[in-house]
Write a structure and sequence with these properties.
Blueprint (H helix, E strand, L loop, with lengths): L1 E5 L2 E5 L1 H7 L2 H5 L9 H17 L1 H13 L8 H28 L5
Antiparallel strand pairs: 1-2
Helix pairs in contact: 3-5, 4-5
């Protein structure tokens, strides 16, 4: 049995339990997700195509920003601009996915 003091509180752990809680064996041996169905793959490709068109401007701006930046200026203002563009891309991805979800539901009867 081990005893440790955490924030003024004593925590008791038994050796056997401590090692079984987060054994890497169980993580490694966890079953892999099954591949997506054909229907899911079609939906994935459709969302990818729609999103690719929506984020084209942001990606182009990212490339221009990187091309214009000198190695010494890659961090700081350039980094913040890249992060801002990446967040805009993520926002568009979420918006597109949520819009797709709304059109997939049926109106209540």
């Amino acid at each position: 049995m081990g005893i440790s003091k955490v924030g003024g509180i004593f925590v008791h752990k038994r050796e056997a339990r401590r090692f079984s809680e987060k054994a890497t064996f169980f993580v490694r041996e966890a079953p892999m997700q099954e591949s997506h169905s054909t229907e899911q793959e079609v939906a994935t490709q459709q969302l990818t195509d729609e999103l690719t068109q929506l984020i084209e401007d942001e990606v182009r701006e990212m490339v221009r920003t990187l091309q214009d930046a000198e190695p010494a200026t890659l961090f700081g203002q350039t980094e913040f601009k890249m992060r801002d563009l990446a967040l805009q891309i993520a926002a568009k991805a979420y918006q597109q996915r949520l819009a797709q979800k709304k059109t997939a539901t049926k109106a209540p009867a």
